[in-house]
């Protein structure tokens, strides 16, 4: 067991853990966050996704010791001052969840994807979201939400959205 | 032995409880939620007599309405539909209504999430109760306001005298100590439970809230990470457990080397052949489960090689048979006249279809939290049927059912008898033995490897076509593993892994089904046969209901075969269906989907250019149609596929769905529900196959058991909803799902001239068929 200082959603958080324990268990266990979820523990489904230094990262396989010093963002901290992030807003407007267990992974992956480049075609969005699982089959609404969020963020970033339908 | 209390039984049977490294008290993290515990069970009891209005609805002094619903939402938004119905009948704003679901001490037993019944059955009781509540409150208002009832009007829970708005009162003021109003109850529990008062419900023509796109109540919490799922439940002093599974399915622990986990701080718990590790933290439990060295009994490999599965099904003895769709009493049948008529016909067509075992493969594997005391227990689970789970856990623990409280919490979507009950039973057993709250979460290899499976089957179809192109005889036989090998609820430990591993022998229950559409083929016989389970104790290939329960398997075959017969007879497949369908609502959805998809009637195969070019173009396109009715829903689906001639990739690019589930309660959540039906159907049709060898299931993660991902999702799903305001709400959770595999298979034939008769229709199977 060792003491680690993590930067989670802009706050410094202390956790005591085995260095090999995946970050997910610190976020969900000690820090009691509700966003990142256990789905597979194998980096195969995405339910545990957080954004680490700007990249969508599967927290179920990242040792907590490797997360020290990184900027970790979670779904729990995504809304700013009570205002949903544009991606969250799009998921709400499209009702892009059924059971919602996988929703964390989709939202965090879409946030990282669109912060990198919001000007994506429908086909690019489909391809870039491969690797995330949704058992309920909410993919159609999720793709609509990603499209809506991309358009909103492209507009917000200034300049017309180069929206291209595949 | 069952008559003994659980503790007494444990004392007599000498449970092995090995103390390992000391278990320390769990440090409670921030955000710790106040939860019910075993000591609070009795205090939490509401009077749950269905024959009392207060059981169903409460209104507080500020007019907030709570509806108690004995079913639960699996992610389709049924709680929002219930809120709409209650708000409609009560004349309150829908935001005033909150819906409590699936708590055995707060909600009546309406059978849980089952058979697309939330709206078609479960909502009826709430509607009648809300109408009666309004009647009672208006009666009280008439006295309080000294006005004739006919002069009273209600707006958002405020009752006023017409033309005199100052003479008014609110539901919050009128509710006093509750309703104390009896209801007529039909004396049933479960899906069939219904109640009514003396009030008339509103006419659908007057609806203002029902039928509108009220936003789903659950979405914001899921998106903003405020929803408390079952996985988030934590109790004071809660321990974490993981269960140890054998490498050979039928093996049991022979010896356990506790020194292998010395230093981790976990203890080993064994009861019968059930083996678990328990620790203060989750990570300790996971490490201990990985590192514990167990010698297993030298068990014979219980399964046939996977390549021999369908031959096994063909040759196995028949355990049970029947000729009814879904459930029902025995219906006699005789294949002889149908087979004779087919033999005498000038054109005879036969086909056999195969469907693999499929896994529920929930997004999260099983989760349960249990706090078992001496005389009572509280269980948190994301089960579909908390009341049944309560009864089953009460039996396991040797407690009276009314002293066991099961609280449903949202979980990963569950579409049938999945693994959702398993961890709750396991947590209950461990908690009883340790005297502390226990949380069990399965690992991914258990979610895929050890959940109940949709039964594999071989479906045999034969038809005779007369000289005039009409059907002369029709034969359909489904033969597979039982859909009830694991019964459709957890009302008995015999239907759980931990039960079977301790002292609850598995039952021997059989069910499959036949297609139930109204085709009036002459000389027709449709029946099912089930075969014995491959392993009769704690099997990773035990079989259960999975969405619709076995209709997906049945309709893949039956609706594909109709297409085969139409093609062979040179008749358009929609025209052939319409020639024999009796049910007007089945006919209507077929006609609607033909119109929406601009279906071009087709005759003999040579007329179809796609087939003529099969195998040459790089991408082959085709369309197929299929039909399903059941659970009060009627659905016809057209799929347009693209088949990559080189890779064999099948992309179900476009769907048209004509959907009639009676009156539409919420068009927006109906749309996403139908989309979910279709997309999950694509996943099962194209990708999903449980892998196994003679020893065990080998597809134990998402690599071994792929499901559909975004690149393969359809591009468009066009939905035509037939909103029948004169009809009661039907089911929407299953019927569209059932149409998908055959619509895809028939489109593949249209594109390539090839029949894929084995599901899943993978790219590999398509490629091999194209190259053959």
SSE inventory with pairings:
The complex is a heterodimer of chains A (166) and B (772).
Chain A: E1 2-8, E2 11-17, H1 23-30, E3 49-52, E4 55-58, E5 71-73, H2 86-93, H3 103-116, H4 122-128, H5 139-156
Parallel strand pairs in A: 1-5
Antiparallel strand pairs in A: 1-2, 3-4, 3-5
Helix pairs in contact in A: 2-5, 3-5
Chain B: H1 6-13, E1 16-18, H2 53-56, E2 57-59, E3 65-69, H3 78-90, E4 97-101, H4 118-144, E5 152-155, E6 158-161, E7 164-170, H5 171-174, E8 184-185, E9 195-196, H6 219-223, E10 239-243, E11 253-257, E12 266-271, E13 274-279, H7 282-291, E14 293-296, H8 309-315, E15 320-322, H9 335-344, E16 347-355, E17 358-359, E18 367-372, E19 377-381, H10 386-397, E20 404-408, H11 422-434, E21 438-441, H12 444-449, E22 453-454, E23 457-465, E24 471-481, H13 497-501, E25 524-531, H14 551-569, H15 573-580, H16 584-596, H17 609-612, E26 619-630, E27 633-644, E28 650-660, H18 667-686, E29 716-721, H19 735-752, E30 758-759, H20 763-771
Parallel strand pairs in B: 3-4, 10-21, 16-30, 19-20, 24-25, 28-29
Antiparallel strand pairs in B: 1-12, 2-3, 5-6, 6-7, 8-9, 10-13, 11-14, 12-13, 15-25, 16-23, 17-22, 18-19, 18-21, 23-24, 26-27, 27-28
Helix pairs in contact in B: 3-4, 10-11, 14-19, 18-19
Protein architecture, described:
- The complex is a heterodimer of chains A (166) and B (772).
- By secondary structure, chain A is an alpha+beta fold.
- Helices cover 33% and strands 15% of the residues of chain A.
- Chain A has a 5-stranded mixed sheet, with helices on both faces.
- In chain A, helix 2 (86-93) packs across helix 5 and helix 3 (103-116) packs parallel to helix 5.
- Chain A starts with a strand and ends in a 10-residue tail after the last helix.
- Chain B folds into 3 domains: 6-23 and 230-300 and 366-442, Aldehyde oxidase/xanthine dehydrogenase, molybdopterin binding domain (Aldehyde Oxidoreductase, domain 4); 40-223, Aldehyde oxidase/xanthine dehydrogenase, molybdopterin binding domain (Aldehyde Oxidoreductase, domain 4), CATH 3.30.365; 570-771, Aldehyde Oxidoreductase, domain 4 (2-Layer Sandwich).
- In chain B, helix 10 runs parallel beside helix 11 and helix 14 packs parallel to helix 19 (735-752).
- At the A-B interface, helix 1, helix 2, helix 3, helix 4 and helix 5 of A face helix 6, helix 7 and helix 18 of B.
């Amino acid at each position: 067991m060792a003491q680690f200082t993590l930067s989670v959603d802009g706050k410094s958080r202390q956790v005591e853990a085995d260095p090999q324990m995946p970050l997910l268990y610190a976020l969900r266990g000690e820090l009691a966050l509700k966003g990142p979820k256990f789905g597979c523990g194998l980096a195969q489904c995405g339910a545990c996704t957080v954004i680490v230094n700007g990249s969508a990262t599967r927290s179920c396989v990242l040792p907590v010791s490797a997360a020290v010093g990184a900027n970790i963002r979670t779904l729990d901290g995504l809304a700013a001052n009570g205002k949903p992030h544009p991606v969250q807003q799009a998921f709400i407007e499209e009702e892009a969840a059924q059971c919602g267990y996988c929703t964390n992974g989709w939202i965090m992956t879409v946030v990282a994807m669109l912060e990198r480049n919001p000007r994506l075609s429908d086909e690019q969005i489909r391809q870039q979201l491969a690797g995330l699982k949704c058992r309920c089959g909410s993919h159609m609404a999720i793709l609509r939400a990603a499209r809506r969020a991309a358009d909103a963020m492209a507009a917000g970033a200034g300049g017309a959205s180069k929206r291209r339908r595949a | 032995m069952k008559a003994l209390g659980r503790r007494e039984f444990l004392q007599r049977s000498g449970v092995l409880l090995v103390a390992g490294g000391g278990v320390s008290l769990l440090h409670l993290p921030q955000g710790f939620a106040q939860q019910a515990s075993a000591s609070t069970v009795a205090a939490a009891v509401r009077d749950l007599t269905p024959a009392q209005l207060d059981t169903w609805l409460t209104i507080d002094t500020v007019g907030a309405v709570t509806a108690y619903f004995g079913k639960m939402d699996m992610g389709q938004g049924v709680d929002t539909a219930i809120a709409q119905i209650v708000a409609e009948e009560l004349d309150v704003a829908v935001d005033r209504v909150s819906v409590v679901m699936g708590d055995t001490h707060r909600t009546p037993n309406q059978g849980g999430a089952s058979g697309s019944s939330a709206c078609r059955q479960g909502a009826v009781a709430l509607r009648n109760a809300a109408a009666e509540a309004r009647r009672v409150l208006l009666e009280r208002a008439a006295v309080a306001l000294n006005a004739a009832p006919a002069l009273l009007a209600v707006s958002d829970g405020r009752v006023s005298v017409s033309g005199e708005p100052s003479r008014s009162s609110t539901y919050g003021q009128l509710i006093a100590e509750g309703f104390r109003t009896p209801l007529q109850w039909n004396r049933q529990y479960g899906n069939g439970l219904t109640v009514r008062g003396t009030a008339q419900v509103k006419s659908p023509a007057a609806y203002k809230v029902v039928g509108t796109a009220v936003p789903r109540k659950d979405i914001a919490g899921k998106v903003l990470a405020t929803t408390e799922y079952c996985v988030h439940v934590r109790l004071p002093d809660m321990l974490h457990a993981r269960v140890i599974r054998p490498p050979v399915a039928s093996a049991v622990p022979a010896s356990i080397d506790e020194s292998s986990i010395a230093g981790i701080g976990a203890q080993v718990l064994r009861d019968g052949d059930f083996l678990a590790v328990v620790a203060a933290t989750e990570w300790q439990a996971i490490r201990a489960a990985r590192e514990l060295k167990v010698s297993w009994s030298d068990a014979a490999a219980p399964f046939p090689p996977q390549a021999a599965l369908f031959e096994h099904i063909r040759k196995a003895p028949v355990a049970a048979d029947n000729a009814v769709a879904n459930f029902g009493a025995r219906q006699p049948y005789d294949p002889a006249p149908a087979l004779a008529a087919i033999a005498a016909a000038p054109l005879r067509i036969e086909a056999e279809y195969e469907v693999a075992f499929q896994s529920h493969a929930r997004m999260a594997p099983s989760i349960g939290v249990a706090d078992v005391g001496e005389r009572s227990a509280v269980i948190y689970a994301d089960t579909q049927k908390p009341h049944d789970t309560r009864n089953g856990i009460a039996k396991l623990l040797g407690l009276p059912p009314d002293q066991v409280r099961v609280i449903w919490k949202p979980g990963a979507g569950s579409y049938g008898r999945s693994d959702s009950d398993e961890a709750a039973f396991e947590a209950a057993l461990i908690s009883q033995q340790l005297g502390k709250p226990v949380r069990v979460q399965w690992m991914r290899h258990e979610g895929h490897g050890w959940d109940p499976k949709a039964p594999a089957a071989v479906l045999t179809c034969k038809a005779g076509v007369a000289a005039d192109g009409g059907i002369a005889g029709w034969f359909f036989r489904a033969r597979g593993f039982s859909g009830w090998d694991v019964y459709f609820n957890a009302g008995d430990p015999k239907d759980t892994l931990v039960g079977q591993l301790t002292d609850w022998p598995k039952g021997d229950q059989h069910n499959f089904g036949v297609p139930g559409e109204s085709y009036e083929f002459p000389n027709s016989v449709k029946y099912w046969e089930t075969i014995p389970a491959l392993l009769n104790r704690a099997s990773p290939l035990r079989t259960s209901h999975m969405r619709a329960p076995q209709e997906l398997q049945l309709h893949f075959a039956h609706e594909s075969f109709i297409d085969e017969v139409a093609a062979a007879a040179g008749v358009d497949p929609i025209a052939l269906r319409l020639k024999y369908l009796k049910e007007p609502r089945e006919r209507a959805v077929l006609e609607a989907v033909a119109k929406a998809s601009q279906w071009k009637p087709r005759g003999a195969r040579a007329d179809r250019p796609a087939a003529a070019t099969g195998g040459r173009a790089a991408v082959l396109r085709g369309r197929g149609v299929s039909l399903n009715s059941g659970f009060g829903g009627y659905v016809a689906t057209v799929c347009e596929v693209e088949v990559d001639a080189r890779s064999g990739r099948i992309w179900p690019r476009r769907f048209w769905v004509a959907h009639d589930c009676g009156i539409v309660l919420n068009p927006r959540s109906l749309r996403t529900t139908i989309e979910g039906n279709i997309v999950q159907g694509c996943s099962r049709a194209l990708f999903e196959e449980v892998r196994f060898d003679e020893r065990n299931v080998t597809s134990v993660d998402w690599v071994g058991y792929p499901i559909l991902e975004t690149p393969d999702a359809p591009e468009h799903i066009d939905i035509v909803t037939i909103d029948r305001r004169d009809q009661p709400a039907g089911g929407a959770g299953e019927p569209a799902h059932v149409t998908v595999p055959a619509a895809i298979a028939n489109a593949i034939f249209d594109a390539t001239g090839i029949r894929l008769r084995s599901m899943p229709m993978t790219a590999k199977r398509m490629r091999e068929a194209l190259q053959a």
